[in-house]
Design a protein that fits this description.
The complex is a heterodimer of chains A (about 130) and B (about 500). Chain A has about 130 residues and is an all-alpha fold. Chain A is about 75% helix and about 0% strand. The radius of gyration of chain A is 21 Å and the shape is elongated. Chain B has a two-stranded antiparallel ribbon. Chain B is mostly helical. Classes of the chains: A mainly alpha (about 130), B mainly alpha (about 500).
Chain lengths: ~130, ~500
């Protein structure tokens, strides 16, 4: 068991990070920390994919010295997935940050609970 | 290859590019382009449906000429065509019905942004329906989330901004879970296309290896998509998002967006995991329990509301519960009932959101029950539309809601362990539905009490209020067509159910 644990270090780290990010995004009240949590969660998945794509002792999947044999290179698909994933997470982060700026300008707070309270108060005033 | 087979790809691209072009157009032109794009894609979906019904089989469409394990694929069959057609119609009518409110709710300089979001939403929904590749599905899930968030926040009130951020947080959680599920699936199978992944999953299950990872994949993907579609207990974002967005956005979000994710989940179960493996993983039981709980809690919370929009939003929570209950039955019949309810609810909920707009307009823009008293007389067409929608939700015969309740009840008879719970849940939830919808409907046709809505005294103000209450032609067409759609789904349910059955068989 412990030997297996050492063999799959990247995967374990990525799962722990995923949990940390997920919990932060779900439970933290501070909006900026929520966004940080989201980024940690996404990055954990990329680490997992990158770790899965890497094969010990093989080359970058770029044709070198005319070697055509696929078994000389690592799997390029996970790297492609990571790149696409990064693009997606950048755009969601940008949108979340834009929303956070809006809310901060309006209510002067980053605490989601407090903002919700202020919104309710604003509505009650005629 | 027939030319019609290109249509799924064309419709996704048309919707996406009209969104891109709209970014440089003024609001009115963007609106016209959006309506045109929805019309064209809906016609294309109808053509695809006709083609697949004609040939009696589904087909895959290779993107970029890379063969199966590497390339990207689109797949179209009867069920995909039917769903795309119905989603297109509901989208078209929602945009038509909410036009005036979009023009009033949003600053003139930002009108085109709203229609960009509508176009992107359409494109991502179509892609979710047609795609045969899981990673493409993930990318379009995110586009869908961003477009949905845009639709909510475009209104710029404090409420809609906070609703948008809550929506975004919950959706990001769901997307994260979905993505980790895909990564694990890729890890154990080495495939992202649905059909090869299915072969690999079947091999793994037959060998008995990777038992826990397969279980985790099913669980994580199900929970991720359940969060995104607002299954109880992940429903906390629903009331605010549907309640404070502009009516078109509410109709599209509650009628279509959550259904898109459920459709993807069904596709994942059938096309990737094979239904039997899903049933053995017992995840369907979890979905069943939360579906039933959602039916109850959603209806109870809806009864407690005094604001019409929030009531309709909470009723969505209950209806999503119905769909998950159908999936949770774990039988073919349950799945058919769930898919039919996806259609029925899309048509009905959009009708409720759109027709209630006419009622608010006739009540001085107020949305609480007291102010709406007598609104059924002040705006007759909207009153009738709301009546039909509410009746359908309660399950009045001839309307779509009745057929889905009937299908749920008959499918429950086939699963002995869940039969009793399902039937009791259906009965109780119907009564609860009736309680809150009937209360409002009776209110709509009672004379206004003093201190609630007062008709303006002088002639000029009265004329002003009358003009405000008059329905624009677009809203009229929209309500009439929605009512017709409900009647069609209710009266001609048999051919539709047959097509759903055939489409599900094609998933295998």
């Amino acid at each position: 068991m412990s030997a297996d644990m050492l063999l799959n270090l990247e995967e374990e780290v990525s799962m722990v990070l995923f949990g940390v990010g997920f919990t932060m995004l779900l439970l933290h009240r501070n909006l900026i920390k929520k966004i940080m949590g989201m980024n940690i969660m996404d990055t954990a998945i990329y680490l997992f994919l990158a770790a899965k794509g890497y094969i010990e002792g093989r080359m970058v999947p770029i044709l070198t010295d005319g070697i055509q044999d696929a078994s000389a290179y690592i799997n390029p698909v996970p790297s492609g997935l990571v790149l696409t994933g990064i693009v997606v997470s950048v755009s969601t982060t940008a949108l979340m940050l834009a929303l956070t700026i809006r809310l901060y300008e309006r209510y002067g707070s980053l605490d989601l609970d407090q903002i919700l309270m202020l919104v309710k108060k604003e509505e009650e005033q005629p | 290859m027939s030319f019609v087979q290109n249509f799924p790809f064309f419709s996704i691209i048309i919707a996406m590019f009209s969104g891109i072009i709209s970014s440089v157009l003024p609001g009115k032109k963007a609106r016209a382009l959006s309506v045109a794009a929805i019309t064209v894609t809906t016609l294309m979906s109808a053509a695809v449906l006709g083609f697949c019904m004609g040939t009696g089989e589904s087909y895959t469409y290779m993107m970029g000429h890379f063969p199966a394990p590497w390339g990207n694929e689109i797949r179209a069959g009867v069920l995909e065509g039917l769903t795309a057609l119905l989603f297109g119609i509901v989208m078209f009518l929602s945009v038509l019905g909410g036009m005036r409110d979009v023009a009033e709710d949003i600053e003139p300089s930002k009108q085109n942004l709203f229609y960009i979001m509508i176009d992107l939403m359409l494109s991502s929904l179509l892609a979710l329906i047609y795609t045969n590749d899981l990673f493409t599905a993930y990318v379009f899930v995110e586009i869908n989330t961003i477009a949905g968030c845009g639709l909510i926040m475009v209104r710029q009130t404090g409420r809609s901004l906070t609703a948008a951020i809550r929506y975004m947080v919950m959706s990001s959680l769901g997307s994260g879970l979905f993505l980790i599920g895909l990564s694990l699936l890729y890890d154990v199978t080495g495939q992202l296309l649905m059909s090869p992944a299915r072969t690999a999953v079947e091999k793994i299950v037959a060998e008995g290896s990777y038992r826990i990872p397969v279980l985790v994949i099913v669980a994580v993907v199900s929970v991720g998509l359940a969060i995104k579609s607002g299954l109880f207990p992940f429903h906390s974002w629903i009331p605010d998002t549907y309640g404070y967005a502009t009516p078109t956005a509410s109709a599209v979000l509650s009628g279509l967006v959550s259904k898109g994710y459920i459709f993807l989940l069904i596709k994942f179960f059938y096309r990737v995991m094979a239904p039997l493996n899903v049933i053995h993983s017992h995840i369907v039981n979890v979905l069943f329990i939360f579906g039933v709980a959602g039916m109850m809690i959603g209806s109870l919370r809806a009864i407690m509301q005094t604001d019409t929009r929030k009531m309709i939003a909470y009723s969505s929570v209950a209806q999503i519960g119905y769909i998950y209950m159908g999936i949770g039955l774990g039988t073919q019949a349950g799945m058919i009932a769930a898919i039919f309810h996806i259609f029925a609810h899309a048509a009905t909920k959009a009708l409720l959101f759109i027709s209630s707009v006419g009622l608010y307009k006739a009540s001085g823009g107020k949305t609480d029950f007291l102010a709406l008293r007598g609104a059924g007389y002040r705006n007759r067409l909207a009153g009738i539309g709301f009546l039909v929608g509410a009746m359908s939700m309660v399950g009045f015969p001839m309307l779509s809601g009745f057929i889905s309740k009937l299908l749920f009840a008959t499918s429950a008879l086939q699963s002995p362990h869940k039969m009793l719970i399902t039937l009791i849940a259906l009965a109780v939830s119907t009564v609860l539905n009736a309680v809150y919808f009937l209360r409002l409907m009776i209110g709509l046709y009672r004379p206004a009490r003093s201190g609630t809505y007062v008709e303006p005294k002088d002639a000029k103000a009265r004329a002003e209020a009358g003009r405000e209450a008059a329905n624009p032609w677009a809203l009229r067409i929209s309500i009439v067509c929605f009512v017709a759609l409900n009647l069609i789904l209710g009266l001609f349910s048999q051919p539709i159910v047959r097509e759903i059955t055939e489409g599900l068989a094609m998933f295998e």
